[in-house]
């Protein structure tokens, strides 16, 4: 074993260990920067009374389809907006815009997950859907998006019955961090070998509080329960009184006026 | 990849703060419940440090134990994954820590960079 660095590898070169090297302490979290951006995003969502949802899944589980089906049902009831994360193409954002809801596409290129910094910039291009929902469709991947907080209020993991009922135990990092599990493509259940109870049991073992919705984005079966849950989540947020809203506006106006005065553009 | 880039970013920051020019070894602490794959981080670290102050640096990983307590019987035990069952009753655990990912310390020097 290397006595200098304590590693167990006897083969490795010891260049740099001897002589005038010194040890410095660092103790910095790898996710410190992302977490700082996530905190900013979260504060912004709360200030604007936006329910932000981070949708994660394997590729092809039906996230975009679920979003268009959800938007159709909620369009007249809640303001909504979508951030679409994909490695390539703007196709999914186009699919969302066809529903009449604003969408911003983030192309991550080789990156296999969204991060809080990218989401923060995407938000600059959006009018916040106050009192409503911002859906963030993450890149199709159940591995590293687990580590990257985007500032969302709820993390929603989508899986489809064609993927196998042991997904939660295969991707425990993701499922333990999700608040909601959607089992999609319920219309295909008769054609596949998928044990719904086993899947839900695995998910709840990782997170006993997991909300579960079984639905088909294609046929609409089970969509109503999901949509009602979304509305209930927003009603808490929308309940801020007009008085409070006026007060925030007044504060903001006062702040802007004082800045204008400082800049000498306005007489006091 | 992006976590390895984050490690490099931390090294570059520290080089300015703690005034060194070369990194020879990096110790990271990765909890057993952290959402990161050790071998992948090793590989990515080697790739992203090419041509930087940390080119060729060793990456050492420490894996502190994670503790959890059974949600059914309350017994506490060491978890090495999210799936570790309670040794008493087989119940699921509530984790306490174990998700940390941290650059802990470095072996550094002031020697000039070997090559760019
Ligand atoms: N049978 C069936 N197919 C679905 C359902 N939801 C989505 N799909 C199909 O699954 C494929 C992937 O859907 P998409 O929304 O692009 O998945 P994403 O990659 O998670 O955004 C598409 O061909 C959809 O038409 C569903 O409920 N039932
Ligand atoms: Mg999609
Ligand atoms: Zn060594
Ligand atoms: Zn990734
Ligand atoms: Zn920026
Ligand atoms: Zn127990």
From TrEMBL, chain A:
It comes from the Bacteria. GO terms for biological process: protein maturation. PANTHER family: HYDROGENASE MATURATION FACTOR HYPB, HYDROGENASE PROTEIN ASSEMBLY PROTEIN, NICKEL CHAPERONE. Coiled coil: none annotated. Residues 54-213 form the CobW/HypB/UreG nucleotide-binding domain. This is Hydrogenase maturation factor HypB. InterPro entries: CobW/HypB/UreG_nucleotide-bd, Hyd_mat_HypB, P-loop_NTPase.
UniProtKB/TrEMBL annotation, chain B:
GO terms for biological process: protein maturation. Keywords: Metal-binding, Nickel, Zinc. GO terms for molecular function: nickel cation binding; zinc ion binding. Signal peptide: none annotated. InterPro entries: Hydgase_Ni_incorp_HypA/HybF_CS, HypA/HybF. Residues 93-116 are annotated as: Disordered. Belongs to the HypA/HybF family. This is Hydrogenase nickel incorporation protein HypA/HybF.
């Amino acid at each position: 074993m290397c006595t200098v660095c304590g590693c167990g590898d006897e083969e490795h070169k010891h260049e740099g260990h001897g002589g005038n090297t010194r040890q410095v302490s660092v103790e910095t979290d790898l996710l410190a920067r992302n977490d700082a951006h996530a905190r900013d995003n979260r504060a912004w969502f709360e200030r604007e009374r936006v329910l932000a949802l981070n949708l994660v899944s394997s590729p092809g589980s039906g996230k975009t389809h679920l979003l268009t089906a959800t938007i159709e049902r909620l369009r007249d009831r809640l303001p909504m907006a979508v951030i679409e994360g994909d490695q390539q193409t703007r196709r999914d954002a186009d699919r969302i815009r066809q529903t009449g809801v604003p969408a911003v596409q983030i192309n991550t290129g080789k990156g296999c997950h969204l991060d809080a910094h990218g989401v923060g910039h995407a938000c600059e291009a959006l009018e916040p859907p106050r009192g409503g929902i911002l859906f963030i469709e993450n890149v199709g991947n159940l591995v590293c998006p687990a580590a990257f907080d985007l500032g969302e209020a709820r993390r929603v993991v989508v899986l489809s019955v064609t993927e196998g009922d042991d997904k939660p135990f295969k991707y425990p990092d993701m499922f333990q961090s999700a608040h909601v599990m959607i089992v999609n493509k319920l219309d295909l259940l008769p054609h596949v070998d998928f044990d719904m109870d086993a899947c839900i049991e695995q998910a709840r073992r990782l997170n006993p509080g997991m909300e579960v919705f079984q639905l088909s984005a294609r046929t609409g079966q089970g969509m109503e329960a999901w949509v009602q849950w979304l509305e209930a989540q927003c009603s808490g947020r929308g309940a801020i009184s007009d008085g409070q809203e006026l007060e925030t506006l007044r504060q903001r106006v006062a702040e802007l006026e004082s800045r204008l005065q400082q800049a000498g553009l306005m007489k006091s | 990849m992006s976590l390895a880039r984050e490690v490099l970013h931390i090294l570059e920051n520290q080089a300015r703060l703690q005034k060194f020019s070369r990194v020879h070894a990096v110790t990271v602490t990765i909890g057993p419940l952290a959402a990161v794959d050790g071998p992948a981080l090793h590989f990515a670290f080697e790739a992203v440090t090419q041509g930087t102050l940390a080119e060729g640096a060793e990456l050492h990983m420490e894996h502190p134990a994670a503790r959890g307590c059974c949600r059914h019987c309350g017994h506490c035990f060491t978890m090495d994954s999210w799936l570790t069952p309670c040794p008493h009753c087989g119940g699921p655990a509530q984790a306490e820590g174990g998700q940390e990912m941290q650059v802990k310390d470095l072996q550094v020097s002031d020697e000039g960079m070997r090559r760019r």
